[in-house]
Each structure stands twice: as C-alpha cells, then as structure tokens.
C-alpha cells in the first residue's frame, strides 16, 4: 500500500448534438427522406466553411502576435526601447502566445477541412443516389439515349 496516494475521479461530460450527422447506414439516416438528408448536409457544409474561415482568421492573428512579440524583443535587444523586465516578459508572452494560437488554429483548420471534404462527399453521394434526369426542351437525356416526352 502506498501512503498518501489518492485515487482521482475523472468526470466526463457528454453532450449530444442532434444536428450532428449520424453514421452511414444507421436506422435514422436510412429512414430520413433524401431531400431532408441533402438539406441537412448542405447546412453542415456551410457551418464547416464558416468555422474554417474563423479558424484561418485566428491563425492569422496568431502569426501577427508571434511577429509582434519577436519585433518587441528585437527592439529591446537593439535599444529602441528601454529594457525593463516587464517589457521583456510581455514580449516573450505575446510571441509564445502567438505561436500557440497559430499552431492550434492551423491544426483545427486541417481537421475542419477534412470534415468538410467528408461532408461534401456524403452530400454528393446522396445527390447521385437520387438518379436525377436532365431535361432540356421537353426531351429527357438518359446517357446516350434521347427520349421525347409526349
């Protein structure tokens, strides 16, 4: 027996998002109408595009902070500003914070882009499953065969 050791309880919070896509082949997805499924996937694609845009903005802000911190430290080193410990620490904090923000945002952007590609592929598969027919001037086109509608 180890003296002084305590077991730590881990608490997990599970949240369920009803708008999240369900796995392919599940009961709920196969029961939904194709147009509803395509509409849901369109909404998901738009949400992902907006999240990617926000993530790219954060990555740009992180780059700017990293450069600002480096410039601040260079200014202190070359005597453009009076050296004070507070200024030095603030330059280090801004520079490191910018690197961290940039790194996490770039990673998030990659994950979001992967999710976007998956959602677009799923949407395209759902649209292809409808077997839509092109209609032009009263004629239906079925591959190489053209039929006139009466």
Based on the model shown, name its key terms.
3 strands; 150 residues; rod-shaped; 3-stranded antiparallel sheet; single chain
Description:
The chain has 150 residues and is mainly α. It has a domain of 94 residues. 63% of the residues lie in helices and 7% in strands. A 3-stranded antiparallel sheet has the order 1-2-3, with no helix packed on it.
Quick structural overview:
The protein has 150 residues and is mainly alpha-helical.
Note the overall shape.
rod-shaped
Give me the count of strands: 3
Helical residue percent? 55-70%
Largest beta sheet: what is the strand line-up? 1-2-3
Compute the number of helices: 3
Mean pLDDT across every amino acid position: 79
Helix/strand order: HHHEEE
Distance between the termini: 89 Å
Largest beta-sheet characterization: 3 strands, antiparallel
% residues in beta strands: 5-15%
Structural class: mainly alpha
Rg over CA atoms, rounded to whole Å, is 27 Å
Show the helix and strand layout.
Blueprint: H1 27-31, H2 34-77, H3 85-129, E1 134-136, E2 139-142, E3 145-148
Antiparallel strand pairs: 1-2, 2-3
Helix pairs in contact: 2-3
